[in-house]
Design a protein that fits this description.
There is one protein chain. The protein is 40% helix and 15% strand. By secondary structure, it is an alpha/beta fold. It has one domain. Helix 5 (87-97) links the parallel strand 4 and strand 5 (103-106). The protein is globular, with a radius of gyration of 14 Å. This is Dihydrouridine synthase 4-like (S. cerevisiae). It holds the Pfam family Dus. Residues 25-112 form the DUS-like FMN-binding domain.
Length: 113
């Protein structure tokens, strides 16, 4: 899927190939929302993650999408973390956020239904 962020997607991979130490704000429940990401970016954070978003709820409800995923043009590079129990749901959720993010992370460390 082509989106308007090909250049930012390639630049995020370039960041890892440059051999420099990266400052990454990992996903934190209830804390990694836009306001917190904006704050850590003021302190030169290189890459930020969203909090974990349950992909099924995200796809089912506009209210969940509006509540769980907010961003702006300065919130890049951004990785969106999803919890999903089937590949199609994860892929569908990833397609929704693709134009507004630089990658998707599947949470495999937290127990999910």
């Amino acid at each position: 899927m082509k989106t308007g962020n090909e250049n930012s997607s390639s630049s995020i991979m370039d960041m890892f190939e440059q051999g420099k130490v990266l400052k990454i704000c990992a996903p934190m429940v209830r804390y990694s929302k836009l306001a917190f990401r904006s704050l850590v970016r003021k302190y030169n954070c290189d890459v930020c993650f969203t909090p974990m978003i349950v992909a099924t709820d995200f796809l089912r409800s506009v209210k969940a999408r509006d509540s769980e995923f907010t961003t702006n043009e300065r919130d890049r590079p951004l990785i969106v973390q999803f919890a999903a129990h089937d590949a199609q749901t994860l892929a569908d959720a990833a397609c929704v956020v693709a134009p507004f993010s630089d990658g998707v992370d599947l949470n495999c460390g937290c127990p999910q239904r």
